[in-house]
Amino acid sequence: MIRFFSALLLLVIIFVAYLAFNDIKSEPIVVEPEPKEEWVMDESLAMYLEEFEQGFKDGLTDEQIPGAAVVFVKDGRVIFQKGFGVTEKGKPQKVDEHTVFRLGSVSKGFASVLTGIMVEEGVVNWNDPVFRYLEDFKLNDPEQTKRIQIKHLLSHTTGLPRHSYTNLVEDGLSLDSIIPRLQYVPLISKEGRQVSYQNATYSAIEKVLESQTNTSFHTLLEEKLFKPLAMNHSSASFESIQSSTNKALPHVYHSSSRGRVPMSISEKYYNAISSGGINASASDMGKWLLLLTGHHPEIISGKRLEEIFDPLATIHNRRYSRYWEGVNESYYGMGWRVLDNHGQRIVYHGGYVNGYRSEIAFAPEDGVGICILINTHSSYPLTVMPDFFDHFKSNSVEVVLE
């Protein structure tokens, strides 16, 4: 009898537990996410953006620039992105924030950041000798060859003369055929001492990363940067920009036509992607600026970005700072130029290729950045940028570059 009641009691306990379990399952506890704080643009910022837009449009007209696109970021947000003008002079299609332009040498910053990601993953190190990965990489001096590190490639401080074999890049030769020829070029300095701008030599970084990952540089860009950032209009091939239905055509000035005339898109520099082969829209460049100003630590850490932006060599001329009043020197980090705008650190780069001009710049300490894309050659974007940074300049930050 005792066994009977014990068994009955056990069945009752199991049944009650079953009901309780099903009751819990049928009415799960739902935790509502906290509502995101809505961002409201203050009146002074709205007024500045309105004034900028009108002034920028007037400048495009004065400079006879057919089309442009602009994006601003501030404090981790895109606060302005807009297209101006047309994709092709004489045609009705308007430029918008998703219109694709060629970036030219602004592509170099993508290569250095991608390398930074590889450094974080333990694939390479800034101080690794290049010859360790590329047996065909040789300079005129065998001892200097052994001392050239990845950071020297990315800072244009290998000791080679300016634009060594850029002509071969523009002739369409592959990097595999150009790199072995560097040994025949007389050197002008020891490594690390002098900035001497390169395209072919800079692009050797592509072969370094490919050798260590067994993955094409194009695919690495897609997998490590374009896809994670949802840069949906960005690419690194001639075929991609050609097939785009929303692309800006390049323009050149013809005196006989008394103005800019459209030209075809060239295949030049798609054989050296890291030096000039990336295509992107203003909306994509806004996402890129957010990464550069430290808002995507899941992709690359702030520490690694600081290593990339750290000045490694001084540029002793005003070619790159002449639009900034009172700024007489600029510097080069890895894939980026750096200048001290009276206590405000500006990291920037420009690009020109095939009738396209691009400029990108940001002030890390102030959390602001700008990118301007135009479909002709003009220095106009450079004249716009100093006023932008002066407007957002913080009085509480002073950075000394050495």
Descriptive key words:
402 residues, alpha+beta, 8-stranded antiparallel beta sheet, 14 helices, 12 strands, 35% helix, 16% strand, globular, disordered N terminus
Fold blueprint:
Layout: H1 2-26, H2 43-62, E1 67-74, E2 77-85, E3 101-102, H3 107-120, H4 142-147, H5 150-154, H6 166-170, H7 175-178, H8 204-213, H9 217-226, H10 238-243, E4 251-254, E5 259-262, H11 273-276, E6 279-280, H12 282-292, H13 302-309, E7 313-315, E8 330-332, E9 337-341, E10 344-353, E11 356-363, E12 368-374, H14 380-392
Please tell me about this protein's structure.
Helix content is 35%, strand content 16%. By secondary structure, it is an alpha+beta fold. It has one domain: 3-Layer(aba) Sandwich (Beta-lactamase), CATH 3.40.710. The strands form three sheets. It has an eight-stranded antiparallel sheet, sandwiched between helices. Strand 4 and strand 5 (259-262) form a beta hairpin. Helix 3 (107-120) packs across helix 9 and helix 3 packs across helix 13. The model is unreliable at 1-36 and 395-402 (pLDDT under 50).
